[in-house]
Amino acid sequence: MKLRKFLLLAIFICTSLVAGAQENWLQQVEEMIDQGEFKKAQTLMNNLPKKVRAEQEVRIDSLNTIMERIRKDFNMTPSDGVRLIREKMPSATDEQIAKWKRNRKIEYMIIDGQEWWFRKSIRNLWLLADELSEKHDEDKMTTYNTRRKYYLEAMQSSADKNGLRDWRHVNITFTLDVDADVVPAGETLRVWMPFPYENLRQKNIKLESSNRPVTMSEGSKHHTVYMEATAVKGQKTHFEYTFSYDVAERHIAQDDLLAMLEPYDVNATDYKEYTGNQPPHIIITDDMRALARQIVGEEDNPVKQASLIFDYISRTYPWAGAREYSTIRNIPDYVLENGHGDCGQVTLLYISLVRSLGIPARWESGWMIHPDEVNWHDWAETYFEGIGWVPTDQSFGRSAVDTPMNNYYTTGIDLYRMASNETIGDRLSPAKKYIRSETVDFQPGEVEWRKGNLYYDKWDSHLEVNSITKIY
Q1: What are the start and end residues of each CATH 3.10.620.30 domain in the chain?
Q2: Is the pLDDT of residue 2 over 50?
Q3: What is the pTM of this model?
């Protein structure tokens, strides 16, 4: 009897240990990925019980995909990196290069015991290192002069009571082509592509035409056009649609904001939502609160506090090419640790900091459609009681520091935008099964088939601005 009880106890303990190991396997894998121990992470997942692997198929696929993306981002050997630096700067010493690494001007990662440099690290070095900043300052002034031109153009029109002016009618064609034979012939390709949404600055939105039947998104804050097509052997699969909308410039001067400002209704649902956490990238930690308080000092006016946060980020965190967002655990922390960020990264830092002060802020993104540059872009909106939501382009603010436009992008935005996203990391509509190529934002589109996501290297997308016509 004693032996039987002992055996039952042993079985119970072993079963409990196995169950416990299965419950925390995800945490272990994530920690291994953070530490660059990819082989260990893959071994752990491969050795999970068959039932667990079946139940967690999509999550395991996502974790393997993230490791694959990190390897693609960190694919430069140190020797190749040093060679490229010295091709551009023959006088660079070993000591300088070591200093740039210590100061995170050169981003690198140890993966399975081997050092790898970020694929954009050399280009970023020329943007980040103080010794190499002269050319960057020239580029910054060129950018400022171009954006100043758009501002002066808009100021020729009178603003309405909401600060809107210079309305334009925009016509755009978006295309996406999936490479031939990336999935077997006869398989269904599922494609999501961006579409503008109605807000104060965008209206009269219309789908003009498409080459395939379209399903418009419902209930998602990533506004999309969805299409399907059957893959044909040896042929690219082409998706195309044209749409139009009206868009305006908007900005509200700080003095006007101060005159209209009212106390926040801290019990309002929207106030609570947009001053709270939004994991994994908007987390109001004690450190975030402390930094925000350090920046604003004794200032207690929300308009001035937001402006101080905006100026601090503009002066402190220069632009640099970003690694894949899906591979970063918390993007604002990444900016703080590395000392730089692209448009979306500094936008998320801005949102986190002002929320920590009790100022509502939210994400907006889509495309910048300026005559000289069409590209993905991210910005924010900040809420002030008595005024409402006003645009805040943290990244564009960096080109306006110490210029006559210093405060323009703090509470303003030019008209050359196509906003399609109201938040980060929302579910797509119709639902997507596998991990997105971009898990935070949504601009170039997303593609998947029955057996998985298709990453950017399997397809190309393009936004073509057909016309921008002045209305009034």
Answers
A1: 163-472
A2: no
A3: 0.93
